[in-house]
Amino acid sequence: MHRILVVNSSTRQGRFSDGIATWAVQRLKERGDFIVDLLDLRDHPLPFFDDTPPVYHPREYADEGVARLARQIDAADGYVFLVAEYNHGYTAVLKNALDHTFVEWRRKPVAFIGWGNVGGARAIEQLREVAVEFEMAPLRHAVHVLPDVMRAARERGGQADSALLAPLEPRLDLLADDLAWWTEALATARSAEVR
Ligand SMILES: Cc1cc2nc3c(=O)[nH]c(=O)nc-3n(C[C@H](O)[C@H](O)[C@H](O)COP(=O)(O)O)c2cc1C
């Protein structure tokens, strides 16, 4: 079975992303065709990147914290980024994590779940461009959580739960079906390459 890494890209106190992470991981696991892990960037506090570009020394990391993060990324066959939108971009902590690594993401698909005034669409579009630089395959089908859901979650204490997110399940299923296709196709192609 292929391994999917769900990346929680918000680390701030009181983050909305926790409810999204619980929902996405549970629903992806329920399919039974992926091994699903959660990568919470809170568990990987890294210094601001200030080294030589990792592309020049693939998988060689002096910092054990970066090496630990890189191993988790490397072990995955595909990714789902949970995308908070900050000032029309994605989070600085995600960009920093990306800049610390490189080849681990290569030739693997990435799908996006975003939230915010336009469902994180602006931040997701930026991430699609960045994903290409990492030679990832950014996927079309995304989940956009809009302010109606965020407002309702706030009124219930802050987190979106599976009942509030239920109308978005068909979108998540479409994302997951597409991710399954690309994960299989690219894993097959990668394994043929190393033989
Ligand atoms: C620094 C900052 C900037 C923000 N900028 C935007 C924005 O440009 N567009 C938007 O839709 N929401 C914006 N928001 C609101 C976020 O969508 C909202 O706070 C959301 O909960 C962030 O995700 P998180 O709680 O998981 O960090 C911003 C929030 C913060 C903290």
UniProtKB/TrEMBL annotation:
Gene3D superfamilies: 3.40.50.360
Transmembrane portions of the chain: none
GO cellular component, one term: cytosol
SUPFAM superfamilies: Flavoproteins
Superkingdom of origin organism: Bacteria
Every NADPH-dependent FMN reductase-like domain range: 3-143
The name this protein goes by in its record: NAD(P)H-dependent oxidoreductase
